[in-house]
Amino acid sequence: MIYMVEMALIATDRRVEWDAWYLGHMHKLISIPGIHATQRFESLSESTSPFVALHQVDGPEVFTSDAYRAKAGPGGTGEWQHLMNNWYRNVFDGIAETPDVPLDGALIVVEDGAEAGFVPLQWMHSVGLDKSSERRAIGVVAHLDDARGLIGRKGVRVCKPLTPRLVEARV
Predict the structure, then answer these.
(1) In 3-state terms, what secondary structure has residue 50?
(2) 90 in a domain, yes or no?
(3) Domain residue limits at 119
């Protein structure tokens, strides 16, 4: 399943500090049982929630676990919780693993009813947390330049990777 987090940073003057904190947060997330991979993106398309993170999870039950509650969730964001808005957390079924989007590629996020032309899409259905989007698709474009024509298309977000895909350490 896919856990998709979307948000905006209010304290834009602290962007460098926030990016560093978020990378540490991603490492913390993949140490939690049931969370297997994570990658972070920034939308090049206009969006009220321009930052997107995709996390590969076993299911919605991860978010009620003691390990998750101790390390993550809204309470695990510390001072940043009040410096972000337009924050949405959704768990989607329909895709087992998060895609590995190359740093020179793009994640394409498509709302129900929109089209992304040439991009192969995988559709997902919301099964947990906010359920702010009932149905949504994601796709990957290997080279960001190939997706620039989608920027501005209604219901489509072109997102550039901010980090590589991080995966849990397997013992």
Answers:
(1) coil
(2) yes
(3) 2-166
